[in-house]
Fold this protein.
Amino acid sequence: MRQFTIRVPASSANIGPGFDVLGIALSLYLTIEVTIDHKNANNVPLNCEVTNSGLGAEQLPTAADANLITRTALYILRCHGMRTFPVGTKVHINNDIPLGRGLGSSGAAVIAGVMLGNAVGQLDLSKERLMDFALMIERHPDNISAAMFGGFVGSFLRELSGTELERVEIPVAEVLPEPSGGVDTGLTPPEPPVGISRQMSYDLAPELKAIAVIPAFEVSTAKSRDVLPTAYTRQDAIFNLQRLSVLIPALGRSPVDAELVHLAMQDRLHQKYRRILVPGLATILTFMTPRTHKGFVGVCLSGAGPTVLALATENFDAIAEEIVSAFNAEGVECTWKLLDCCDGATVEEK
Ligand SMILES: Nc1ncnc2c1ncn2[C@@H]1O[C@H](COP(=O)(O)OP(=O)(O)OP(=O)(O)O)[C@@H](O)[C@H]1O
Ligand SMILES: N[C@@H](CCO)C(=O)O
């Protein structure tokens, strides 16, 4: 019998001007307990029994070819000539990451899936190669880089050749075959090109903590990307690049220069367009400054929203309550959590 645990953190993408570039791993986890016991195997489709607990447990699928985590694992297994999980695989998923709130739940699920496929198939692939498989499914690198490598990370996708591009542009539905009730369609999915993304870890001042204020409604990433323009002006591109160049080193410097970080966290590429999806966002992004609120450093929309992420060094309760009140004034209920930047995905054999 083999037993192991996979743990993947939540993440916040963008951090203001770093749209599709920056991500911070946050101390909320998706945890998967895996048992492979040939002697006590039940006859189940694809040899894999899935159970869920935690957030979204009642809505997340339990069929191995429908759940995003096991489907992703199946994708990587099939690319390596394995059509099913090993006989007697049981996967228990416990999720603490709110779904569809901008805290990287889908990114964590995809990273958990590639780690699961790698571990059950004993493929021994590096985290860098696993990122290629993850990018065939979640196609912007910010959340998944943070979830995989942990810390404060910047990433980009390299320019791909014509034939490589054809492979990565295949619709996700063809990478992850549609659920077929456990019946093997016999299709072999496309293998990803090698080295699609490059990433770099940055320092983050140790006194910085993240206050995540989480509204009680979901915004899907797809919907939140649909409201964005397809092209930007030169002024807006320069506005973000200038701030990004200052924000990254400023976040690593201790003690934190709160005035500088606050200004450098402004953005013109995504947040203003997403206001229509998140009531209260326009106010929240402008009403607090390091001068008016002790300990406050900066604020942004977390990923595709609707969660708002404030960075702070002290006075966390008061800052969180101010943001909660601004949401409440718009009729939006929410909860909040104080989170730390944390390490990336791990697999621990028992
Ligand atoms: N633990 C999980 N197991 C299976 N599917 C999941 C899991 N977590 C997330 N998902 C899938 O991902 C969807 C949410 O993805 P979406 O990209 O819209 O939001 P998010 O990842 O939480 O936000 P963001 O990408 O902005 O940080 C869920 O509705 C579900 O389909
Ligand atoms: N960078 C992405 C993160 C969401 O997954 C976005 O803002 O749309």
